[in-house]
Sequence to fold (79 residues):
Amino acid sequence: MTSLIAVRDGVALAGRVDARQLSYQLQTPQPLVQAMLDRLVAMRKIVAVQPDDSCLSGGCKSCADGQKCLTISYRLMHD
Fold:
């Protein structure tokens, strides 16, 4: 079973990561990873980074899986 510490460490190692990527890395169901990320945000250990809406058309082709930059990512909270 994945722990909050493992999720936090995954965010720290990646620098900036979304729930789908972290779920794949930790081999843990995405809803569980998302719940853990939400808990870490509530504990003020990580911060949610809002999606970049400058590419809503998907024309830049730089988004993973054509998600058009609408994926919320997470990074460590800086003190």
